[in-house]
Amino acid sequence: MAPVRSSTADVDALLVGGGVMSATLASLLTTLEPTWRVEIHERLDAPALESSNPWNNAGTGHAALCELNYTPERPDGSVDISKAVRINEQYELSRELWHHLAAAGRLPGAERAVTTTPHMSFVRGAKDVEHLRKRWEALRAHRLFADLEFTTDPAVIERWAPLLMADRTDDEPVAATRAAWGTDVDFGSITRAMLADAVTRGAELRTSSEVTRLKRLRDGRWRVTIADRRWNGRPPRTVTARFVFVGAGGGALHLLQRSRIKEIRGYAGFPISGQFLRTTNPEIVAQHGAKVYGKAAVGAPPMSVPHLDARVVDGGSALMFGPYAGWSMKFLKRGSWTDLLRSVRPGNLVPMLAVGLRNLDLLTYLIREVTASDADRLRALRAYMPSAHPRDWELVTAGQRVQVIKRGPGGGVLEFGTELVASADGSIAGLLGASPGASTAVATMLDLLDRCFPEQADAWRPRLQQIMPSLGGAAWDTALDQLVDDGTLTGGH
């Protein structure tokens, strides 16, 4: 569907949710079509408080530099790097958009949002060491990963990340890879900056504003009912929109179900919560300037891959370790305990049951994680930081993630990525799923533009290629170095 300015529509595009996805789409739309009326509605009292909040995610600029789950081993023992290459290319688009906005002075307050932070993989034991070696050999053959380093020398690993080796007394084999050009991202700052820029360019951002109902009209527009959640709020408001994007994180499934589009039939959600251990002790933080990812436990979802992360949030440095998976019936961190029950429909019951029966190892893993003690959590941390002491670490609750369940072989499949669901006419679209979501927000929103605005796509492409050279086939190459040199968006750790 192609929104066109008209007195019969209150808005051209209505975006639900004040996270990084809506912020990215708002930035693109206000750049491409400055005359369109765009509204963004966030149910909480400020944007970026759920999954885009920096303490609700690991802040990893996911470029597949260190995440072992993006490079699975094939039955013949070889390593498949296709997903890693795709994610790396998608993250480059995000960096290019951020660079363009920063260079144009359009990212107020986000100067320190992206920090150069090496990405490392770290494994123990002969079998995992050999797998990491094969992964490294497969990746470095591709130009995007040509500078990836590998070592089995404990002294080198100690130089890269001292806390990994300090007080390590066992003599089992170890190995690590390092990408010195990795990044840590404060997605909260990025989100707020892009929304502020969109507002400056004419968009309207409403907080404490909850979309409660969506009804498609005969002419293809949407009648959207919006509740004012403030304690002294006004009565519900109705807006007519030519296009609706549901970027409400865990709340997206419910709203898409209420829209009654046929494309959402069969979709369900499996909520997984999580916790991290965090330290801001300056003596400890100063010894670890990398993001170190390990190997997931048997049965663990990809989002639960253990990692010891250097973080920079609002200019302050910290270390986080985790996540420790949990389970909750909520679809949002500030959601309702009835979220899961309210999402059950006749059309998605079979996929949910099929996934439950075929993922008993995941259920076993979650039960083990939920019942874990403080000593269990400390033991997991010490596998990566043997010198860790409980007095230096606090337990913090991370964001809620809702994994996608949909129809598939055997009745249903469980997906751990993100999935864009759009109506056939392109008048409404929503995003389901979790990692690597935020890092690939730009690629996802470009996909949305192609699918939902086909009549404008050709006219928009030259401008988009100007903003993001990779879309036109140009190499990224020196853009990040330029960013470091001019200080517009990133700084050293």
From TrEMBL:
InterPro entries: FAD/NAD-bd_sf, MQO
Keywords: FAD, Flavoprotein, Oxidoreductase, Tricarboxylic acid cycle
Alphabetical list of SUPFAM superfamilies matching this protein: FAD/NAD(P)-binding domain
Cofactor list: FAD
Pfam name, any one: Mqo
The protein's Enzyme Commission number: 1.1.5.4
Top EC category: oxidoreductase
Protein name, UniProt field: Probable malate:quinone oxidoreductase
